[in-house]
Design brief:
The N terminus is likely disordered. This protein has 3 helices and 7 strands. The protein has one domain. The protein has a 7-stranded antiparallel sheet with strand order 1-2-3-4-7-6-5, covered by helices on one side. The protein is α+β, with helices and mostly antiparallel strands. The protein is about 15% helix and about 35% strand.
């Protein structure tokens, strides 16, 4: 019995993924991931990697990773919302707080702070959003490139 408890305990101690502002999500650690397509983009002044994955739900997630290996932006698009707590990491609470603001549209939320930008919206069957940390953007990166 002791032998079985050690692997179970170790599995429970596995680190959570950092999301935005942290390391890219590992495709092997995500039961819901059906495919991952890393693509390197090296513009003259903005080298980064766009790690795209499609969940079993059909939602596509892009993680934009800078040369230091940090996720500086994420985006999502598809019929279902992904786990935004995982994708936004420590920045998730800012989105939760934005949704509590009076007078906002029920299907949309946005956060525009000095070092955090989040746009999320949609309806059943069609959700999309994007988030980035301005201080982590590679020099010359255009946020219009976030898919």
């Amino acid at each position: 019995m002791k032998i079985l408890l050690v692997p179970l305990f170790c599995a429970c101690m596995a680190p959570a993924f950092a999301g935005l502002g942290g390391s890219p999500t590992s495709p092997t650690a995500r039961a819901l991931s059906s495919s991952v397509t890393p693509g390197a983009v090296a513009a003259a002044a903005a080298p980064y990697t766009d790690m795209a994955r499609t969940l079993d739900s059909g939602t596509t997630i892009h993680e934009y990773v800078n040369a230091s290996g940090v996720v500086f932006a994420v985006s999502w698009s598809g019929p279902f919302l992904p786990d935004l707590k995982e994708e936004l990491g420590m920045h998730f609470q800012a989105l939760v707080d934005a949704r509590k603001q009076p007078g906002r549209a029920l299907s949309q939320a946005s956060v525009q702070q000095a070092d955090l930008v989040i746009f999320s919206g949609g309806r059943v069957g069609a959700f999309e959003g994007r988030a980035w940390i301005p201080s982590l953007l590679p020099p010359g990166f255009d946020t219009g490139n976030i898919k």
